Amino acid sequence: MRDRKEMLAAAGTDTRLCHVGNDPMSYHGFVNPPVVHASTVLFPDVQTMETRSQKYTYGTRGTPTTDALCEAIDELEGSAGTILVPSGLAAITVPFLAFLSPGDHALIVDSVYGPCRHFCDTMLTRLGVTVEYYDPDIGSGIEALIRPNTRLVHTEAPGSNTFEMQDIRAISEAAHRHGCVVTMDNTWATPIYFKPLDFGVDVSIHAATKYPSGHSDILMGTVSANAAHWPQLKEANGTLGICGSPDDSYMILRGLRTMNLRLEHHNRSALSVATWLEARDDVARVLHPGLPSFLGHDIWKRDFKGASGIFSFVLKVDDRESFKPKARAFLNELSLFGLGYSWGGYESLAVMVDLSDRKIRKAPAEGPVIRLQIGLENVEDIIADLERGFRAAAGA
Ligand SMILES: Cc1ncc(COP(=O)(O)O)c(C=O)c1O
User: Fold this and answer.
1) 88 C-alpha to ligand 1 centroid (Å)
2) 88 ligand 1 Cβ < 6 A
């Protein structure tokens, strides 16, 4: 039999997702890996214990279940190693703690996921790290912001809620000229639509809570590093004692098998809805990188292989006082869309976006920003629901 790894590396996306992290013959032929619940691992003798010369030593250091997921993610990301953490937010904070020290300066994109900003402005600042936010459009211009003590450049593309694209390769090259670590929150694209390490990123971050889970029932984060940064990430992970549970790992591995099929559906439906929204008079702008009218579209087209199911639009509202009442009327009228945080599940969700913490990329002036996660429902039903919302907003 040909080497399985070699065969998979050359295979199509669906094939790879069906088989990554899977080794049935090492588990009596069962198709899926076992869910190993573990804290204690026994050693056959004291010598083995002293030298820790066996594959598994303690539950926090990995089990066959967590290893299967890490191997699958490494295969998809092209990374040297992956750690699992209990949430997407922890997938951001753990590498920041791994690579930053008191006195360091960190550059964070202004369109970053909100709770990441909160971590930076509170705990990271308290630990003596200086944080500076930069414009997502900066590209190689980031070099002008790099100081002698800049240690980390954090990217997220598209940005949270407003979906600004970033020239990841240009930013990585500039950052590496100064010895900085480049991290990227790649949750939106998943490694199916964008592979950060191929564009110079050192550490790729995912809220596996979203598309890998796919069903709004699991919280998990993954952090994958290239060979140069893997030892430090792994060491920090072990030091902090933060790990993913075997049950959740199993469920994420299960979700991965169908992720590409789901993504294709999300991609298609979200683009249809975005195009429909763009043609409406009561919509000022649609913030979706896959639309040619969107500012970062050219970067998206050049670097990404697809778009997922979440984007925003700006409701057209004349006076600022009516922004919130109109948005509330719109959202309250929706019945298919749930009002809820997160995304990547099978169901459609809507939320009014708060951009008050932005330093550079301020909120649009034309109206409130409403974020939509387009689920796997039929597009006609999704559009009919949104139409009801627009009618209610018009009457508010
Ligand atoms: C871009 C992005 N990164 C990270 C996270 C955090 O994921 P979790 O909800 O698993 O903490 C989110 C959650 O919405 C997100 O949108």
Assistant:
1) 5
2) yes
Residue 160 CA: nearest ligand 1 atom is: 1
pLDDT of residue 1: 46
CATH class belonging to 259-395 = alpha beta
The DSSP symbol for 29 reads T
Low-confidence ranges of the chain (pLDDT < 70): 1-2
Say if residues 385 and 336 touch (Cβ distance below 8 Å). yes
- Topology of 4-257 in CATH? Aspartate Aminotransferase; domain 2 (3.40.640)
Going by alpha carbons, the residue nearest to atom 5 of ligand 1 is: 88
Query: What is the whole-number distance in angstroms between the Cα of residue 394 and the centre of ligand 1?
Result: 32
Atom 14 (ligand 1) nearest CA: 342
How is the chain split into domains, by residue range?
Answer: 4-257, 259-395
Look up the pTM and report it. 0.97
